Automatic annotation (TrEMBL):
<dbReference type="GO" id="GO:0032259">
    <property type="term" value="P:methylation"/>
</dbReference>
<dbReference type="InterPro" id="IPR050508">
    <property type="entry name" value="Methyltransf_Superfamily"/>
</dbReference>
<keyword id="KW-0489">Methyltransferase</keyword>
<protein>
    <submittedName>
        <fullName>Class I SAM-dependent methyltransferase</fullName>
    </submittedName>
</protein>
<dbReference type="InterPro" id="IPR013216">
    <property type="entry name" value="Methyltransf_11"/>
</dbReference>
<dbReference type="Pfam" id="PF08241">
    <property type="entry name" value="Methyltransf_11"/>
</dbReference>
<keyword id="KW-0808">Transferase</keyword>
<feature type="domain" description="Methyltransferase type 11">
    <location>
        <begin position="55"/>
        <end position="148"/>
    </location>
</feature>
<dbReference type="InterPro" id="IPR029063">
    <property type="entry name" value="SAM-dependent_MTases_sf"/>
</dbReference>
<dbReference type="GO" id="GO:0008168">
    <property type="term" value="F:methyltransferase activity"/>
</dbReference>
Length: 242
């Protein structure tokens, strides 16, 4: 199916980040958006991870995994990109990493086998998000939690225009020349997908960057501390009634 904007209504299973995985690692290691904005928010929502088993879904080059292991967690990481998995293994040898597409079942993980799931900045690259979230719920222990971050839908809409409530695929070339395809969706849709997958939303953060971010870019720091133009983060728990 093709949307009215001419873009097919699917992101597909092509590992988009594979072609610029090494550049992404360099960008995200100490970059404003990742190191001083998204990672602190996600780590706050995860809480104390010491002695916990954490599934790092869409783990990328292992930046979150490294921090989680440092904080005492046992980390299982997966990513669609083979190169990202290579980088993650190099960065954190204590983690267990494997190539996996979230379009497929996590048939190598038993029910209730992890304490926490981290799903950072990757929800928008999954076509059947409810099915993927349902699988993440399946592998979570009943008292576990899912922490996900995504691009802020208001910021997306301000940048892209059109109907805010129109769920659609966007194609962009980012400023480093990275070509990406991802789903644009309102906050309501993400909340409904979590509900359909059997989660209850416990907390929602619209994070502000850490003060160190101002040393990288004062203008970006000021924008992200005053406008809904960056990311948001959610902590959700399994609904015991379902």
């Amino acid at each position: 199916m093709v949307h009215s904007n001419g873009v097919p209504d699917a992101v597909g299973s092509q590992p988009q980040y594979d072609v610029f995985a090494d550049e992404f690692l360099e960008h995200a290691r100490d970059g404003l958006y990742n190191a001083h904005y998204d990672r602190p928010a996600c780590l706050e929502l995860l809480g104390d991870v010491s002695g916990r088993v954490v599934l790092d879904a869409a783990c990328g080059p292992g930046l979150y995994a490294k921090e989680l292991v440092t904080r005492g967690a046992t980390v299982i990481g997966l990513d669609q990109s083979p190169r990202m998995i290579e980088l993650a293994r190099q960065r954190e040898p204590m983690g267990r990493f494997r190539v996996h597409d979230l379009a497929d079942r996590l048939d190598w993980l038993p029910d209730g086998s992890v304490d926490l799931v981290l799903f950072a900045l990757a929800l928008e690259y999954v076509d059947d998000r409810t099915a993927a979230l349902r699988e993440l719920r399946r592998v979570l222990r009943p008292d576990g939690a899912l922490v996900l971050s995504r691009m802020h839908p208001t910021g997306d809409w301000l940048r892209q225009g059109g109907n805010y409530f129109d769920v659609r695929v966007i194609e962009e070339v980012w400023n480093k020349g990275w070509r990406v395809r991802y789903w644009l969706a309102p906050l309501e849709r993400t909340c409904e997908e979590l509900h359909e997958a059997g989660f209850l939303i416990e907390r929602l953060l619209e994070p502000r960057p850490k003060p160190q971010a101002a040393e990288i870019s004062q203008a970006t720091y000021e924008r992200l501390t005053s406008e809904p133009s960056g990311f948001l983060a959610i902590r959700a728990v399994p609904d015991p009634r379902r």
